[in-house]
Structures are given as C-alpha cells and as structure tokens.
Design goal:
Belongs to the alpha-IPM synthase/homocitrate synthase family. LeuA type 1 subfamily. This protein is of the alpha/beta class. 44% of the residues lie in helices and 13% in strands. It binds 3-methyl-2-oxobutanoic acid and zinc ion. Zinc ion binds next to loops.
Length: 392
C-alpha cells in the first residue's frame, strides 16, 4: 500500500485568506500542532516578503523536530537566499521555487517569453539545489499551461535538480478527469523521474479542490498540498482533513495510507479556526457542526438502532466525543424518548411520553431549535408528568 504525504500551506497560502494574519507565536503554535497531527511538510512562509514572515519561518524551523519545514521563493536569487537563511536551523529544510508557465501569466504578468521562462527555471532551480537537498518546483497556473510547454518546464526543473514537482491548479479551473489526465501526461512524458515526488495543489474556485486532489492521487501523485479547513486565496485550497478522511474511509478504493493522526482532526481544525478568525460552516464535510448531527426522524431512528445506517465514519475517529441528534419538527419518537431519558425522565409511562411527544411536535412547528430547557418546560408544564421523579 502506498503512503500519501501531506504538505500543509495553512501558514502561507492559508494566510493569503483575506483578513487572516497570524503572528509568529501563533504560527509556531500551529506548526507544533501540525507536526503532532502527522503533517509531513509544512510551508512555513515566504521569507522574502516581510521581516515578520522571515522571523516566523525561522522560529518554526527551530521549534519543530521531525516535520520538513519549507520556505517559498520566486525564481530570484534574493528569494532563495532569504529562504536559505530563514531555514538554516531546520532539521529538515526544503525550498519551494515557483514560476508561472501559462501563456496568460507569461504574457500579462511576467512579460517573459517561453525561452526566458525555461532559462530562469534552469538558473534558479540549479541555484536552489546548490543550497538545499530537497528542492520543489511549481509551474504556477499549470492547469492552464499548454501541455507540451508544461512538460518542458518540468523537465528543465528535474534536470536542474528538483526532486518534488508540484502541479498547481492555481485558479481552481480544472476538474477531476482533466487533472488526473494531466498527471498521466506529465509522468509519461518526463524523463528521469524515478526519484521525483509528484504533488498536487488545488484551489476550490469551482468546489472541486478535494475531488481534484483525489484524482491526482489516483493518477500517481504521492503528495497533497492543502490547508486545514481549506482556508486560502479566494475560495480556498484543498482541505487536508477532507482528503485524509477520504483516503482512510475509502482505503478499499485508494489503497493508500497517510501519516495523519485522524483523532487530532477536530482539535487541529478548531485551533486554525480560532486563530484565523474564520468560522467553520455548519455543513462543511468532516469538521462542520452538522457533520455528525441527524435531525430527521427516520435518520435518528436508524442511527439509534445502528450508527452505520447513516454514518460512514464515527465521530470518535476525528476526535469528537459523540454524534448529535438535535430535536426539530422532523424528529421522531425514538430520538425524543432518548432525549427524555438523557434529561433524567426515566419513569414515564408510554402514554405520558406520547402526550409529551405530541406537545413537542406542536412546539417544534413554531421553534427551529428545541433546547433541553424547552423539554424541561414541557415536562414541568404537563399535569401528568409533574408526578414523575426526576432521576438525574
Ligand atoms: O496556487 C499556486 O499556484 C501557488 C503556488 C505558489 C504553488 O500557491
Ligand atoms: Zn496556491
């Protein structure tokens, strides 16, 4: 079974989320959490961009132990030098050099010809390799790059010493079929890549970042880049927790394992949410507040009989204590009865329970969220059940 590595960029691409700004202490705290979560490589920042980013990369390099620490650099010597300086205390340093290769970027942003781009890749990857053992190259906007030129750019980077090739879907333009085929195309047209790790990096503009990453894995990617909770530019990056859980739950299909400690998913997600100030949407897969909540009567009845009926993973797997059966107008008598017991009303007769259930249904038609105190009020306000002893 192959092992898929995770490269976390919550502190670099994730910090490009509008409004997000982690300070150095927060970054070090996050880095330590990500290391204990089982992340293989952490992109700690872009050292040339500011003294603060340089300091954070440097502090993270000193603080972490086994995880690879990565610094981002454009194809410029001063960027590469800054990354080298910032990472000099890292046990496992890596540099990530990038240059755009799509016609749109070369023409409008870089004002460079194809030949100039290839020459720059050769010069700067060669220079990076003189300072780092682990060198990653990313052809930015790869999915909108003309394929033959993309292969030339990647081959140039490999020949100059890159050992990790990342294929960014910079603007979230690709889809799973196309992105998977792109990995096939690259790996069957590049030479001398036996020791090269191919990595995917997806953005979520069309809501396909997780699906695209999984398609890349199916087609030879050995590493996934992403962020916790999917934070990042515009609609964000691939959510690492989604890919990790998909690989675990569908191990039968992907035949892959990871180094992620899944039970630390919730606490890692909570930390990023709290420090980034970006709340998690209730219906977000895996970590959303409703991901393990069942409201309809049929689902609640099924889950109470056997959780497997409506849960493909246990809440404990991601570090939650339990699932949740919120009471609403669609809830059935099974979940309602369970709630009465949970609240200590254990001696009610079936008739008394039925009366309370009918009253609950009337209330639930008017009130979206039924709270424990509403149930207590129903019991207290009911002539029959006031005689019941409350066994708390
Ligand atoms: O999305 C992107 O292209 C990037 C690169 C720096 C890899 O984040
Ligand atoms: Zn990106």
């Amino acid at each position: 079974m192959k092992t898929i590595q995770f490269f976390d960029t919550s502190l670099r691409d994730g910090e490009q989320t509008p409004g997000v700004n982690f300070n150095t202490a927060e970054k070090v705290r996050i880095a330590k959490q990500l290391e204990s979560y089982g992340i293989d490589a952490l992109e700690a920042g872009f050292p040339i961009t500011s003294p603060g980013d340089f300091e954070a990369v440097s502090e993270i390099a000193k603080a972490v132990d086994t995880m690879t620490v990565v610094g981002l650099a454009r194809c410029r010597k001063k960027d590469i030098d800054a990354a080298y300086e910032a990472l000099k205390h890292a046990n496992h340093p890596q540099i990530h050099v990038f240059l755009a290769t799509s016609e749109i970027h070369m023409k409008y942003k870089l004002h460079m010809s194809e030949e100039e781009v290839l020459a720059s890749i050769k010069e700067h990857v060669t220079y990076a390799k003189s300072l780092f053992e682990k060198v990653q190259f990313s052809p930015e906007d790869a999915t909108r790059t003309e394929k033959e030129f993309l292969v030339k750019a990647i081959q140039t980077a490999v020949d100059a010493g890159a050992t990790i090739i990342n294929v960014p879907d910079t603007v979230g333009y690709s889809n799973p079929t196309e992105y998977g085929e792109l990995f096939q195309y690259i790996t069957s047209n590049c030479q001398n890549i036996d020791n090269v790790i191919f990595s995917c990096h997806c953005h979520n503009d069309l809501g396909m970042a997780t699906a695209n990453a999984l398609a890349a894995i199916e087609n030879g990617a050995g590493r996934v880049e992403g962020t916790i909770n999917g934070i990042g530019e515009r609609a964000g990056n691939t959510a690492i927790e989604e890919v990790a859980l998909a690989l675990h739950i569908r191990q039968d299909f992907y035949q892959a394992k990871t180094n992620i400690i899944l039970e630390k998913t919730k606490m890692t997600s909570d930390l990023i949410s709290r420090l980034s100030g970006i709340p998690i949407h209730k219906t977000k897969p895996i970590i959303g507040g409703n991901a393990f909540a069942h409201e309809s009567g049929i689902h609640q009845d099924g889950v109470l009989k056997h959780p497997d009926t409506y849960e493909i993973m246990t809440p404990q797997l991601i570090g939650l204590k339990t699932n949740h059966l919120p009471l609403g107008k669609l809830s059935g008598s099974h979940a309602f009865g369970q709630k009465l017991i949970e609240l200590g009303y254990t001696n009610l007769t079936p008739e008394e329970q039925q009366i309370l259930f009918d009253e609950f249904k009337v209330l639930a038609d008017k009130k979206k969220n039924i709270l424990d105190r509403d149930i207590h009020a129903l019991v207290a306000g009911n002539a029959i059940s006031t005689s019941q002893s409350l066994e708390l």
